[in-house]
Amino acid sequence: MELCLQRIRSTSRFDNAQHRLCQMPKGHDGKHDEFPYLRHLLKTNPTVAAKIKRDSTMTTGAAWKSEDAGPNRILRWMMLLSDEELLEYGVNMVALSAQVVAKLREKAANYESCMRVARKLTWLAYQMPGAPVPLEPIRIYLEDFYGSMNVHSTYCLVCRLPLHFDLFANARRGKADVETAHSNPRIHDDSNVGFAHRECNIAQGAKTLPEFYAWIEAILDRVKAD
Amino acid sequence: MELCLQRIRSTSRFDNAQHRLCQMPKGHDGKHDEFPYLRHLLKTNPTVAAKIKRDSTMTTGAAWKSEDAGPNRILRWMMLLSDEELLEYGVNMVALSAQVVAKLREKAANYESCMRVARKLTWLAYQMPGAPVPLEPIRIYLEDFYGSMNVHSTYCLVCRLPLHFDLFANARRGKADVETAHSNPRIHDDSNVGFAHRECNIAQGAKTLPEFYAWIEAILDRVKAD
What is the pTM of this model? Predict the structure, then answer.
């Protein structure tokens, strides 16, 4: 599918703004829209839609908000800018601890990757049992990118158990039982993301999935050898 | 070993104070002391000694300090008191979220258990390679409770790899690479505690160790079946 990609003005002052692009099909009617495939979830399950937007485009929230360093979350593509450039947007990286800076920089991703991630996550969310049935144009849009959508086909990226849409229930409080997860935590792109149980995502930590599986296998080997 | 168990006055205003007891051998010379076996580490590795005291006697730190609910950490035996009794010590449990209350109450342990945990952790810390050699009276005291101390015999409670004393290096910032861990996270007593890598403790989460091992085994079975 060819996309419109008309530039859209960002409403955030913490945004270098050159990147917001209309994701509607090329030659579409009506308004430009960055997240057209989220229109339906925004009505039926607004906290889920907000979570998909947030997880795909923003760094994780951090405990450094109090340090007068800008917003609690930062747009992932802002993390591609230099410290000097970020200062112009009111984000003072130098005031943050090396640990926080590393964590933020690790979440860097360009705008196009973030848009692909949001699309992929929406496609996955609709395939959880308990999810609303997507409106036809949204289904067609998403399937054009990732193929046929089948309910019961979204599994936890880490533990491989099925994920039910109800797990999003606590998303409002920023502590859903399901989280956006990465096969490789340092790569934020559609081929590398999925959903995972919160406890699975926490257990995986900074490891890639192959590293995580090798790690737990070695633990079990030692436990059994005792 | 029979202990002195003379009552010692607590210096904390968040303490019901009936519980502080001298842990020196019965009939000892000199001052009463609640942590006589930590005297040496207090000099050689004060952050490690402070960590052992803190982990054995206090609940984990919480993000609720700002809610005007008393200290950031609370003595574990205070968590055995009722909400009404706690109010008298300036700790207003009702002002906290149900989630935080549950987390705090889960850390409850009586004073005697906490004292046993501190002793056991000290015994374990001295057996890590890189630890200082315990002063003779401290070695004798600890071995009287838990048996012979041998360097290289302290393993991560979770992953069973050896733990080096250097892992305590970041303890000052409250983020050591080694943490106090529990085979069953809801039981705080000497038979149930040990040290673990921070990442192992986080991965274990709220599960007991048998639950954790069964969980990761099932994950590996599913991954291999794919």
Answer: 0.89
